[in-house]
């Protein structure tokens, strides 16, 4: 069982930046063994794919809504995945979830029902 813990959420103004972190436990090489990613969910809406990164390379994929503004990265030594969010908009307001999957490639991690492990989420609020 992989445990994921998100941090770094908060309140930011439109155009601002935040960096989310996802730390993992249980295994020292989780972020290089599992494909890692982020989803988000706004009140009253379905969970939305944000980004995913390969377990073995820097290859990453992004949802259309965040392409060009968000960047996912991984620090294997710290067993942590990051989501750098720039140019934030009010529509980015949501709870952000870190995810990990044992077998899916990043491009296949866009459907929330197929993901193996989820964190508890961290709230991001963007004020207008």
Q: What attributes characterize this protein structure?
A:
3% helix; seven-stranded mixed sheet; mainly beta; four-stranded antiparallel sheet; single chain; 1 helix; 128 residues
Please characterize this protein's 3D structure.
The protein is mostly beta strands. Helix content is 3%, strand content 46%. The protein has one helix and eleven strands. Strands 2, 4, 5, 6, 9, 10 and 11 form a seven-stranded mixed beta sheet that branches. Strands 1-3-8-7 form a four-stranded antiparallel beta sheet. Strand 5 and strand 6 (60-62) form a beta hairpin. The longest helix is centred in the first third of the chain and has 4 residues, at 30-33. The chain is globular, with a radius of gyration of 13 Å. The model has no long low-confidence stretch (mean pLDDT 93).
Quick structural overview:
The protein has 128 residues and is mainly beta. It has one helix spanning 30-33; strands at 4-7, 10-13, 18-24, 35-41, 48-53, 60-62, 70-75, 80-85, 94-101, 117-118, 122-127. It contains 1 helix and 11 strands; from the N terminus they run βββαββββββββ.
Q: Give the fraction of residues assigned to helices.
A: under 10%
Summed up, the helix count is 1
What's the pLDDT, averaged over the residues?
93
Strand content: over 45%
What string gives the helices and strands in order?
EEEHEEEEEEEE
Output the structural class.
mainly beta
The oligomeric state is single chain
Main pleated-sheet profile: 7 strands, mixed
How many strand units?
Answer: 11
Q: How big is the Rg?
A: 13 Å
Stretches where pLDDT falls below 50 for ≥5 residues?
none
The N- to C-terminal Cα distance equals 39 Å
The general outline is: globular
């Amino acid at each position: 069982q992989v445990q994921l813990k998100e941090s770094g959420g908060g309140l930011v103004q439109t155009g601002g930046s935040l960096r989310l972190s996802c730390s993992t436990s249980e295994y020292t090489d989780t972020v290089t063994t599992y494909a890692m990613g982020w989803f988000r969910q706004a009140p009253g809406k379905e969970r939305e794919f944000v980004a995913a990164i390969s377990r073995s390379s820097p290859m990453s994929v992004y949802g259309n809504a965040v392409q060009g503004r968000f960047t996912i990265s991984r620090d294997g030594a710290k067993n942590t995945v990051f989501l750098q969010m720039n140019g934030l908009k009010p529509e980015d307001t949501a709870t952000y979830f870190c995810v990990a999957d044992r077998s899916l490639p990043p491009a296949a991690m866009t459907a929330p029902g197929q993901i193996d492990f989820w964190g508890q989420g961290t709230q991001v609020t963007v004020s207008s």
